[in-house]
Amino acid sequence: MLERWNECTALAFALLSIIPSFHLSAQDTSTIDRGVRIGIIYRPGVRPGLVMLPRKGGGLDSVRAMIARDLDYSDRFEVISLPGGDSIRLATSPPTPSRTTGTRRSTGSSGGAQVASAGGGLNYPLYQALGADFALDVTAAGDTTVATLHDVAAASIRRSVRASLPPPGDPDFRQAVHRLADQALQAALGTPGIGATRILFVRDGKVYQIDQDGADMKLVSSTDRQAMSPAWGADGRRFAYMEFQAGKGWLFLQDMATGKRTPVSTTGSALDFTPAFSPDGQSIAFSRATEEGTDLYTINIKNNCCLRRLTVGRFSDNLSPTFSPDGQRIAFVSTRPGLPQIYVMAADGTDQQLFAPFDYGVTGSSNAPEWSPDGQSVAFHRDVAGTLQVFVLDVRTRTVRQLTSVGRNEDPTWAPDSRHLAFVSDRSGYRQLWIIDLDTGRIRPLLQQSGARLPAWSPRLSEAPSSTP
Amino acid sequence: MKSVSWILVIGLGVAVAACPSNPPPQNTTPAVDTAAENQRVRDSIAAAQAEADRLAREEAERIARQREADSLAALSRNAEGVRSTLAAMIHFDLDKSNIRSDDMGILDQKVAILQANPALRIRIAGHCDERGSDEYNLALGNRRAQAAKQYLVSHGIDASRIETQSWGEEKPLVDGHDETAWSQNRRDEFEIISGGDNLRRPS
Hints:
The complex is a heterodimer. By secondary structure, chain A is an alpha+beta fold. Chain A has helices at residues 2-30, 61-73, 88-92, 99-117, 124-129, 173-189; strands spanning 37-38, 49-52, 78-79, 134-141, 144-151, 156-163, 198-203, 206-211, 218-219, 227-232, 238-245, 248-255, 261-263, 271-277, 283-290, 293-300, 305-309, 318-323, 329-334, 341-346, 353-354, 366-371, 377-384, 387-394, 399-402, 409-414, 420-425, 432-437, 443-445, 453-457, 467-468. The longest helix of chain A has 29 residues, at 2-30. Chain B has helices at residues 2-17, 34-77, 81-87, 104-116, 136-154, 179-185, and strands at residues 90-91, 121-127, 162-168, 187-194. By secondary structure, chain B is of the alpha+beta class. Chain B has a four-stranded mixed beta sheet. In chain B, 52% of the residues lie in helices and 12% in strands. Chain B contains six helices and four strands, in the order αααβαβαβαβ. At the A-B interface, helix 1, strand 14 and strand 15 of A face helix 1, helix 5 and strand 3 of B.
């Protein structure tokens, strides 16, 4: 009798112990914030097809490869492989030139050259049959490099972009080529590309820059002290960062071209961190940690005056400011709900309110907001099940969606096209920088070095070369 | 998923219903007034529980007093230990900045040392583990340093003798990516700024 009762109890407890686990897994899908959409909708085939015309020689192989890669990394084209194996992907991967590929490439290019030379036109029906909307031809005319964009459907030249490229090895060579690629992209689609952009990041306490295609990594911080939180000025000619010095956090402005750095006038008295330029370049917003906690301030860096406190959080921390592109608002992190979450206020500190919705007691900490250059979104990262994931807030609807789910992903930063984000991820086993395209979901590593973090993507850099319609 | 758990709940109900309805065997003699007897048993259990609670409370208080006395006594005995006692770290729970009760003795020792050495000035540096956001950890480390400073000030130390700073997660004490490392990295460090040449031990 007693034994049987015990058996029954054991069975009941066994069942009881199963139920909570089902509840847990049910929660995994039901605890998502209202309005959150997970995943990326990818519609293949809606992007215009582009073919990069193969040509041989002229000293432009590396230029063609760079332009082809920029157009590929723009994620705005379906890159079309030519029959015979000639394709942009081949052109961008020089380490695999087999004998057959080389032969085919030269055959293809000589064919293309013949077609082009015959009457200045291409075999448009052929490229159209291959699915190309555009064909890009890069040639040399004396000292000038000409990128000719063909509109395949219209069977005509859309535009020729000319650039006097510095010799390879010149410090500005790669940027000049990137600008040419951006011009070609603009000729095709009407929007500028992001070829001529760079990304600042921190590694081992030092600030580095790297081109968006992963080339030309360079140390830019000019002291041996530990630095954090680089941030670009809107003109791309200077950046701000924070440096630990004698127990304080100092803010510095550094000129990109000369490397000259200047401390922000009010800095040195406290722990100042997370600087952010206002879009007009007149002031920076930053966080200052004191006995009362951490609060947001702005200071006019043009006239070195007018320190203004924006938040008063005696029992909360307020940090990580980011301006809206019109300079009217500042999104920031506040711990006023208990955990850090994303808030927004007017740039003068008034009208402070919650920005990114969260479920109290359910949603994890949210940090590192960055307002997109088009003003429509704010990217940030949020603690999900003990690790960090990148989210994007839609400013108009105030809904959030989760972008990443593999590994730990943090500190997103917008490309000037407002569709690419660079972020830190350990998805490959160690923390490094990755780039995601929000429209297609394509993800690529920016560099293959561990320990890179706190990335900041530049605005479009420098002047564009002259072009002829 | 919800329907699965409903099925399980029903299954559980069936399993319980299948059990014998009055399982514990009744061996008590029927002559005793069971209601009064049960009340008496409950009362005696409650009394015993209250007594046990009181003893536990007294014991905890005695241990706390003893710990403070012991730590101060140890401090007085060992003059060379003053400097290392002053440097002893305190630790924090994940994403928290409140002083843990088991660290209060460490801070009490620092209060005594600071009182015995009026010229002594110190800097408290707050640190975090690597799990949080890099920049948020600067704010959190600041809170941790401020919490220790608050404790010292509330025990009579002049606030002007204590500086604070935060390193966030930038200076981990232990390399590693597990709780063993993290728990050691969530800490306050204490260093002497000035007045530390001829440290006197607390009397």
